[in-house]
Amino acid sequence: MAFVDSSKHESLSNVGNRFIVLSLIVALVLNLLPLQGIALSLRPDCVALLVLYWSINQPQRVGMGASFIMGLMMDVGDASMFGQHALSYSVMSFIALLMHRRLRIFSIYKQIPQVTLLLLSAQLVMLLTGILINANLPEWDFLLASVSGALLWPLLPTLVRIPQRRRPDSNVL
Amino acid sequence: METAPQFFRHGPGPLARLLFFALLSLLLMVMDTRFKYLPEIRQTIAMVLNPLQRMAYLPAEIFDQVSGLFVSRSLVDEITHLRGRHLSDQGKLLELSALEAENVQLRNLLEMELRVEVQSTTAEILYIPNDPFSRKVTLDKGSLSGTQLGQVVVDDVGVIGQITRIYPWMSEVTLITDKDHSVPVQLVRNGLRSMVVGIGQDGIMELRYLAANADIQSGDLLVTSGIDGIYPPGLPVATVSKIESDTTYSFARITCIPAAGVSRNRQVLILSPLPPIPERPEEPVESIRKDKKRGKIGLR
User: Which of B98, B125, B192, B212 has its CA 20 to 30 A from that of B37?
Assistant: First the structure.
């Protein structure tokens, strides 16, 4: 299993910076989609998911700094307190950075529980800062976003690799 | 904490970096909530984000337009309904203009100041931010179209909220249901004044500081009292839904349902700011000082 994963890693190692930025922008747009009701509470935090994905698979390129900047973007987009998402993403990225070697040993399906915990840690940081400034306490379904995000996790490598597969094709043509 | 051998390391270690970013974001949070600094940074990021937001809004817009092609039937219904409402409103308007004239005359007779007419501009709800920690809406009018901080936003039935943050192309409205957002109100039935405070949940608010024996019934309509100089008087805010008067507390626990809702329609009105209320007369400082001195002497 570990052998298969390392080969995947190799195919990802030649990912361009431009591609990473593009994927993060797409995640931002997905996060900004105007949704309501159940769809809104079930919608995973795509930015958190991708930041996590890149900081596990490309820790040299996407680290706490990139997570922090993406967090600031989300703070403005979500009209929340400035720095709230930034803090939670950088904490999540930090834990991912400590764990990334161990995480990559597991198959993508076995990563799901740990990814759930990582996403929950980000939400926990948000919750704590929310309590600190005496904001509204969210309903319990606030935490569903982590679960749905973690369930999407196995799809992420294929989704991320779609544009990469096309690239050699276009060269051939 | 050792994640990589020393010779592979780039820059400071992960813990140091985490501390740096944590401190930086804490600093930003404190500056944002306590001192309301950083509007420039926020605005720059908002400018970068604006095209992305418009892009995210595109599917909904396309869906609206496509579904708009298939609604001619419901449009006919809506037109007949609106015609009926227009007629009844017209009757009420005629009555109102007569009353207004009478009011002006009476106020002239009593030498009172005339009520100010409130101007309004329409805006559209662009986006409902997904922040579980606050109740906010983004409108498509910003400082470029003359929107100002503190302006009141209403829909066809009542108050929605107040503009609390402004970008060049859009503005953020804090809803009246946001936690600790308070609106001074008055009971229509008997003119009792109080405050309606949001508790951070949709569709529920609290009427505070009314005595347990206050004359209030469920179903009472609450309108803005206008004594704050921000909300123009007479706008519907909420209706009383439940009253729990417990004699162990000095105040009754009264819950209300807000009149207006954001989920119902996308068009809202931004009301023009009221003229500044006359300043409070300065308190006679001298006499207070003397009183304090006297008090001290008395204590000795």
Answer: B125
Hey, is B29 helix, strand or coil?
helix
Which of B21, B199, B263 would you mutate first to test chain A, the one with the most A CBs within 10 A? B21
A-B CB pairs within 8 A amount to 138
Closest CB to B21 among A25, A64, A126: A64
Nearest to B28 among A83, A98, A136 (CB): A83
Residues B59 and B203 in one domain: no
Q: Which domain holds residue B230?
A: 120-275
Interface of B with A in 207-266 (CB under 8 A): 263
CB contact under 8 A, B29 and A101: no
Chain B contact set for A140 (CB, 8 A): none
pLDDT in tens, B93-124: 888 888 888 888 888 888 777 666 777 888 88
pLDDT band at A6 (very low <50, low <70, confident <90, very high): very low
Query: Is A76's CB within 8 Å of B17's CB?
Result: no
Q: Note the pLDDT of residue B10.
A: 62
Angstrom distance (rounded) from CA B300 to CA B294: 10
Chain B residues 108-137 with a CB less than 8 Å from chain A: 127-136
Q: Beta-strand (E) ranges in B97-235? A: 120-127, 136-139, 152-154, 159-166, 171-175, 182-187, 193-198, 205-208, 221-224
Query: Do B64 and B124 reside in the same domain of the chain?
Result: no
Tell me which residue in A28, A67, A82 faces B28 most closely, judged by beta carbons: A82
CA distance B188 to chain A (A): 30
Enter the ipTM. Answer: 0.77
Q: Where are the domains of chain A?
A: 2-164
Ranges of beta strands (E only) in chain B are 120-127, 136-139, 152-154, 159-166, 171-175, 182-187, 193-198, 205-208, 221-224, 236-244, 253-258, 267-271
Measured between beta carbons, the chain B residues lying within 8 angstroms of A43 are: 130
More confident residue, A125 or B7: A125
Task: State how many domains chain B has.
Answer: 2
Cβ neighbour number for residue B236 with a 10 Å cutoff? 18
- Chain A nearest CA to B42, separation (Å): 6
Q: Are residues B145 and B269 in the same domain?
A: yes
Instruction: Give residue-wise pLDDT tens across range B178-224.
Output: 888 889 999 888 888 889 998 887 788 988 888 777 888 888 899 99
10 Å CB burial of residue B282 (0-12, 13-18, 19+) is exposed
Among residues B35, B50, B69, which one ends one of the domains? B69
Same domain, B60 and B142: no
Residues B137 and B268 in one domain: yes
